[in-house]
Amino acid sequence: MADLERLQLAVEMGDRDTAVAVTEEAIAEGIPPLEILEPMTDAMGVVGERFSRQEIFVPEMLISARAMKGAMALLEPLLVGSGHRPDKVAVMGTIKGDLHDIGKNLVAMMLKGANFEIIDLGTNTPADEFLAAAREHQADLIGISALLTTTMGNMRGVIEAVRAADDLPDLRVIVGGAPVTLDFATQIGADGWAPDAASAVDVAKAVVDTARGRTTLSGLIHPDVIAAARDTAAA
Amino acid sequence: MTAQSSQLTTPGPRPHAEVTTPLRGEWMTPRRRFLSALYRGRVDKVPACTLSSCVTVELMDMVEAPFPEAHLDAELMARLAATVHEVLGMDTVMPVWHSQLESDALGGDTDWAEKDNWPSPSKFVISEPEQVKVPADFREQPTMKTVTEAMRLLRRRYPDVAIVGKVYGPWSVAYQMVGIESFLMDTILDPDKVRRYLDAFLPACIDSAQAQFEAGADAVMWADHTTGDLCSAETYRDFLLEMHQRITQEIGGPGIFHCCGKTIDRVHLFANAGWDCFHFESQVDAREARVAAGERMSLFGNLNNPTLLYQGTPEQVYQACWELMDAGVDGLAPEGSVPLITPKETLQAIAKAAADWSAERRGEGQFAVKPPDAVAVAAD
Q: DSSP state, A117?
């Protein structure tokens, strides 16, 4: 019988061959696709936590994402065939004028691991492309990345365009990237900000849940806000 | 030996010359000051430096030397580089503002961008180390030739100003030509391939450094972006430390190592590599870096670009500079490439802070004296 714990470990360790092999076995045995997906999602969560604790670095994250991508190539047709659609849809892109994509790619792969559908617009993305993709895919979220200080100002234009769009009242925007500080995210009116790819997952989930009325959070959501809410709930 | 030469070699005792005008104030040339600080020597004033791109759109307009033309025209490049000394008051000039110097000369594909942005690779052209070919006329390639010609112009025009060259090392050239993701994954999946990439790119990088020294550079900034934001300290140790130990002996002049981001856990390794100086980012605490580097390596940096130089006020920059000098940095410098729309007033505050702090620390003496707690205890 397919060992789904082994699948989780394979994704955590970035062992693509094993991840693909176990997924093939699981599919052949008729295990429901969502049950096969779950250990991979858990694995990416573990990878994100290890990254946040600096136990692992970008290369390890990249090979984990590669392992998951290999397995998902087998699983996705079955998920689509069974009518399954990820719960949340995020449009991701690096802002106009900026050709750096590693930060955006890391966040995209972590969100995908957390069961987001990702519409990846690549680099050098203008505001109208973000909005068009959000409309086409009925996205919950736009995620914008910038590495250059010269281009991060363009993020404001995307946020202003979203706010001005009457047909997109529930669409939210999160921002990040090496020069993008919490202060800057606040200044431009973003809904969420995260300092790294791992914490971007929690922020993205919280931002969408807030838009759906599932949390009591308000204002700009970032890791400290989420932690404080957890502490309050625990107390 | 002739009678004449015998007379010349026996001059006899001479009285000490009487000192009539003691050295006071700022008496070192910018070049001499920078080089002395680079080796943690005595300075009349802490140097204010650019060790990365420090030109802005405003400076381009002042001398009519805009991007992207200034990247490939030696006269425009020299003119624009000089503004950093002439307008901003820095002790150094650096006529390289992009990351494509070696990779373009190696056949990379460059998007030269517009006036308000830096060039970048338009695609990754290498997927196997064996594809790397260093052209016989590497130094004659447009990017290399422009930079070396600009340095010669600057050397003639500014003999007393320090010229800093810039080299992307093999690790960073791989980012430009192979792609960051692919290259970083190979550090785990195929380490031997990574080593072959490094070996393949290295000769071009060393040649670039040597060409810049020959053209008049006083030092080169060598960047290999093994930052803590991307990879571990062990990655630097295992892939680059030994190679850097060779590089620092072979490039033929002072080497300033640059690495962005979080690096405090590897600063001691950079010192072990033999770099004369580390140019560090604001994510690294200057005092912690001082302890990690000990006396083995000078520290230049680490003024924050996005929030301080770009969005801050001249007063905030001035204050931050004082704090850095109190913390024991050997030279002030922006942490990396300055945003192209940074106002010149915040950049001018760096040289002013260096002058004022040094005047206070110099008193009536010849040299600015570092605070006792900024003198590092050598770390292993």
A: E
